[in-house]
Amino acid sequence: MLKRRQFLKATMAALSGVALSGSAILAVPRRSRAAAKPLRIGVLTDLSSWGREVSGLGSIEATKMAVEEFGSEVLGRKIEVVSADHQMKPDIGLSIAREWFENEGVESIVDVPNSAMGLAVHGLAREKNKIALLSGAGSSEITNKLCSPNTVHFTYDTYALAKVTASAIAKERGTSWFFITADYAFGHQLEADATRFIKEAGGTVVGGIHHPTGTTDFASFLLQAQSSNANVIALANAGADAVTCLKQAGEFGIAQGGPASCCTSTVRW
């Protein structure tokens, strides 16, 4: 699997194709090309909410490093990296993306942790004939039902997470499952993909519950899961929610003495 920085470096040339065609390059004198507007890449990430520890400043720095390794210029245009904090709020993220594409000369938006926002940027990139390089959003809908020639979805998705984890556990011992699912696009899609593979392996889903982002007390959810008598409690959430839920499951002794605790994703959304 390509690292994020390596992938960004490999796609710099593709960005130039959106901005300048081959025939236009031949027709423009050297002096005009040198004065061309910069080619901007926008890192739309989380700098202030629960996703900042696994994306945020690291994604911005990785993009800058990729540009530096590529050479900081393509087809006579200087490459610039801009960034913004979407605060894990899809309306804010989409507003930033639209402003970038329409008024700020941004040719590609990268990262975009949060599947709901990734889906929105994915659609906007197609509408504006720009490029989306999504390494933060995880919904398999991006490359499944909503597949677009303007988006490259890499690193992981909910299909891969569910296929590997749910299939293996269902075949080994997971005959019955209960889901504790984050109530947003990533959680819903991860649960749906996992349910498919559980059923294909002969297992069943006996129940589930949805929780809001930023939940600090999972006691009621865990007790409900425990009382279902499922032998797998699956966590279709991520980040701080997954960490908190796992810690509290340990405090209840669920992983040690009761049903198995299966975390289908602990780092992405």
Describe this structure in words.
The protein has 269 residues and is α/β, with parallel strands linked by helices. Helices cover 47% and strands 20% of the residues. It contains twelve helices and ten strands. It has helices at 4-10, 12-19, 22-27, 30-34, 56-70, 90-103, 115-128, 158-172, 185-200, 219-227, 239-251, 254-257, and strands at 39-45, 73-74, 77-85, 106-111, 131-134, 151-153, 176-182, 204-211, 232-236, 260-263. A six-stranded mixed β-sheet has the order 2-3-1-4-5-6, with helices on both faces. It has a four-stranded parallel β-sheet with strand order 8-7-9-10, sandwiched between helices. Strand 7, helix 9 (185-200) and strand 8 (204-211) form a beta-alpha-beta unit. Helix 6 (90-103) packs parallel to helix 7 and helix 8 (158-172) packs parallel to helix 9. Residues 17-29 and 257-269 have low confidence and may be disordered.
Rounded average pLDDT: 84
* Adjacency order of strands in the biggest sheet: 2-3-1-4-5-6
β content, as a range? 15-25%
Beta strand count: 10
The major β-sheet equals:
6 strands, mixed
Under CATH at level 1, the class of the largest domain stands as Alpha Beta
Morphology? elongated
Under the CATH scheme, the architecture of the largest domain is 3-Layer(aba) Sandwich
Secondary-structure class = alpha/beta
Enter the CATH topology name of the largest domain: Rossmann fold
Task: Please name the fourth-level CATH homologous superfamily of the largest domain.
Answer: Response regulator
What share of the residues lie within helices?
40-55%
